[in-house]
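Hey,
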Amino acid sequence: MATLGDIITANVKEASPDRHREERPGGEGVVVRTRKEYRRKDGTYIRFDDNAAVLINDQKEPIGTRVFGPVSRELRDKNFLKIVSLAPEVI
C-alpha cells in the first residue's frame, strides 16, 4: 500500500482532452493525497477526501505545470519541493 510521498507506477485513466500527452499511457507518479489516514510523527492523523498523484519525469520533477487541490506536508520532507510550490495549499 502506498502512502504519502511514495513513488508509484501509474496508468492515466482520465485527462483533459485539449492537452497533448506522450504516447505512453502511464508513468511514475508521487502520491499527494490518500483517503486512508496517515499517522504523522507528532501523533496526529491526516486524511483527504480522495486519492491523488502527480506524474513525474525521470528527474523526479512534475510533468504538468499545475497541481489542483491541497498536498501533504510530507512531500517537503521527501524533497518534492517543486510539487509543493505548485500546490495551492499544503496541509
